[in-house]
Known about the structure:
Elements: E1 3-5, E2 21-32, E3 35-40, E4 51-55, E5 62-65, E6 68-69, E7 72-77, H1 81-87, E8 94-101, E9 111-117, H2 122-133, E10 137-144, H3 153-159, E11 162-167, E12 174-175, H4 178-187, E13 193-197, H5 200-213, E14 217-220, E15 236-237, E16 240-241, H6 242-245, E17 248-251
Parallel strand pairs: 9-10, 9-13, 10-11, 11-12, 13-14
Antiparallel strand pairs: 1-17, 2-3, 2-8, 3-7, 4-5, 4-8, 6-7, 14-17, 15-16
Amino acid sequence: MAREILSQSSCCVGWAGGRPRAIRVMRILQESPRVRTLILETRIEAQPGQFVMVWLPGYEEKPFSLADADPVTLTVARVGPFSTALHALHPGDQLWIRGPLGCGFTIEGRRILLVGGGYGVAPLAFLAREAIARGIQVTALTAARRAEDVLYRDRFRALGASVVVATEDGSAGEPGRAPEVAARVLRSGSYDALYGCGPEGMLEGLRALAAAFGIPAQLSYEAFMRCGIGLCGSCEREGVVLCLEGPVLRFE
Length: 252
């Protein structure tokens, strides 16, 4: 399958050459038992799918996709020491960010399907807002293992998207994994493009699904990123440096 890496105006190095900027936390939302959203007291010029490097004293920088850029919004799952430290922040506390970085999504077509697995829905909410503002019909599929892990259902609805929920155990919405439910959605109507963010296994399923339906896919891949600007090579995948040429890759 041919792959075309996105190369467009959404590629931006932002503040990569400087030091991280100290920003205060304005508001915190509890999304699920282990996921919180931090809304920061700043805005940046960014495209959906881009990310920022986040730093706290005593920790290494970590990449986080932008759930929004105005204000900067980060959705954080508690999975290790750094994310646990972020969960311990309160409104008024500071963190440091550097970005926006990477290449984001290109909005195309008149009707699009967004598929997010777990906290992979975060950049898709940003994408949904931008697409709907342009008059594009958006269907958002938010998938999780169980009902309590489903994220952004109400947020997508508030934006004006049609929402489909999928859970692996069938405890909410449609039963099945994200690619299985996405296939049913694609069979139910005509879509111009497929967008996805989540675990790599899910993304590979979406890549095959888009090929089967003959539509382009833009998929955001997670990777271990240390520098965020293509110098260290820690996020190389199949010859692609994801922090610089991704994290969004396009598949025809």
